[in-house]
Design goal:
By secondary structure, the chain is an alpha+beta fold. It has 13 helices and 15 strands. Bound molecules: protoporphyrin IX containing FE (HEM).
Length: 485
């Protein structure tokens, strides 16, 4: 029972589509008040599948559930425990996780508008997307009856900024390509080039991931699913797979200080308009229009056909064209996630003297493919008129290895690629760390002479809410809404 074809009817459409045409969206955060009524509503909710229809949809509805939500819906504890530990404990559960994710000072979960404590933790999120003409009436209709089982704790509205995030940069350009056809050998040890093609099991539970492994998930005794509502597990055909075709969804409400960002940059360049744009673009790694600072190098990259993404950092180990600390280089170092400089003797020797150069090159590439994120966020508010930011959303089959690793090691890590005292210049938390280490510098190497260093970066992005959700397959949602046998 291996390598079954993908059942798109069982996968929520959000995994396959970003719904750019559906420019109006809002995310309703709900808490269960009456478990029977909540399950009854979930059972009939018109969830959109990943099947491609002749005409693109005008509306889409998705449902995601937190671990607190599974419990509130009456899911048995041993089933909840089959999910990953970070999903079970949640994003805001302990100070050590908060420190690792950079949720300190103004981003401390204690200050969050939602998700920072048990009382404000959503149970279920309903995500509504539509073309503007349909949104209100369809949304009202789709949500009718929900009030009998749920209370709404927040309605996260979004805004259509035409593909530009609130600081003014083109967004939504680089995404991994999912290997839906399951062509790629799951464990491709020979892989030594950066590829954009990513195994299905990196985003969906129940399929082999980039290690060739099935991620842990609740596999139930078939007796607990007598009507065979759930698919059977590929790797354990006698078990009912509650995870298959589901994904984890990370949501972070990231408030952006647009005035503070441009004000700081203006101060640095004394108002020079050319240098103003250059400095902001160096922080991101792309021009405001979305061109990579590496240029369109037209490198052949498996699974990638957008010319704005056909590049690696192979020819720029020093960061002369795109600073090593730039946001897109930190969040996906492509082929270059080891220090260009000499932070340790062994790495220095390997680099300088060429010891084991092949093994090192393989390591550079292979490690990035375990940390890809499928981004599905939406902006909110209209700058400069309203409070604005990003409802950052990413999907992945392993929250710890994907979102948490990228957020903590690459974006917040002070030692990323041999840097000192630096975290992501755009979105990093620039508070000094517990031991007093500074994190508010951004370096831009110049061809001769010392790096140009911008110091005293303020924090431009604050986390004001967040939670980890499970985005179940449609059969799993039906199973969960029937209550426990
Ligand atoms: C307010 C917060 C953020 C802003 C304004 C922002 C902005 C941007 C922009 C302008 C790009 C370049 C366009 C593109 O490739 O799509 C980008 C790329 C990216 N960002 Fe962010 N971002 C934010 C938060 C985050 C967070 C929290 C993460 C991960 C934890 C993240 C991960 C990524 C990734 C993976 C890419 C693609 C890099 C690549 O493949 O080249 N971003 N972001």
């Amino acid at each position: 029972m291996t390598d079954q074809p993908v059942d798109y009817e069982d996968i929520q459409g959000l995994v396959r589509f970003g719904y750019r045409r559906l420019t109006q969206a809002c995310f309703l955060l709900l808490r269960v008040t009456n478990p029977d009524a909540a399950r009854a509503w979930l059972a009939q909710a018109p969830v959109t599948s990943a099947t491609k229809r002749e005409a693109p949809p005008e509306t889409a509805l998705h449902i995601a559930i937190t671990s607190a939500g599974l419990r509130a819906l009456g899911v048995a504890e041993d089933i909840v425990e089959g999910f990953s530990s970070e999903f079970i404990v949640g994003m805001s559960s302990d100070s050590s996780r908060a420190r690792r994710l950079g949720d300190l000072g103004p981003s401390d979960p204690a200050h969050w508008q939602w998700g920072g404590s048990l009382d404000t933790m959503p149970h279920v999120m309903v995500m509504l997307y539509a073309v503007p003409a349909e949104f209100d009436e369809w949304g009202r209709h789709a949500m009718s009856g929900a009030e009998e089982g749920f209370e709404q704790i927040a309605c996260l509205t979004t805004s259509d900024l035409d593909g530009v995030e609130p600081f003014g940069f083109a967004d939504g350009i680089s995404e991994p390509t999912i290997d839906w056809k399951r062509d790629r050998p799951a464990r491709d040890e020979e892989l030594s080039d950066y590829t954009n093609l990513s195994c299905l099991g990196e985003y969906l539970l129940g399929y082999p991931n980039e290690y060739g492994e099935y991620t842990d998930r609740p596999l139930l005794d078939a007796l607990r699913d007598p009507d065979a509502i759930l698919p059977r597990a590929e790797d354990a055909p006698e078990r009912a797979d509650l995870g298959r075709n589901g994904s984890y969804l990370v949501l972070r409400q990231l408030q952006q200080d647009v005035e503070g960002f441009w004000g700081f940059i203006d101060e640095q360049v004394q108002g020079d308009p050319v240098r103003r744009k250059q400095l902001a673009e160096a922080m991101v790694g792309r021009t405001m229009e979305g061109e990579p600072l590496m240029g369109r190098t037209n490198e052949a990259i498996d699974g990638e056909d957008d010319p704005r993404n056909t590049f690696t950092y192979r020819s720029d180990t020093e960061g002369l064209r795109c600073p090593v600390g730039a946001h897109i280089r930190r969040s996906n170092p492509r082929n270059a996630d080891l220090p260009p400089g000499p932070p340790g003797f062994i790495s220095w020797a390997a680099r300088t003297l060429g010891f084991d150069a092949d093994a090192l090159a393989n390591d550079l590439v292979s490690s990035t493919r375990f940390h890809r994120l499928l981004r599905r966020g939406r902006e909110y508010g209209v700058p400069p008129l309203e409070e604005t930011g990003l409802h950052f959303i990413c999907l992945g089959a392993n929250i710890a290895r994907q979102f948490e690793f990228v957020q903590s090691a690459w974006l917040s890590g002070l030692r990323f690629a041999g840097s000192r005292d630096e975290s992501d210049p755009l979105i990093g938390n620039h508070q000094p760390r517990e031991d007093g280490t500074a994190s508010d510098t951004f370096s831009m190497p110049v061809p001769s002479g010392p790096d140009r260093r911008v110091c005293g970066l303020p924090q431009f992005v604050a986390v004001v809410g967040g939670a980890y959700f499970f985005l179940p397959g449609l059969r799993a949602l039906r199973y969960l809404s029937r209550g426990q046998p």
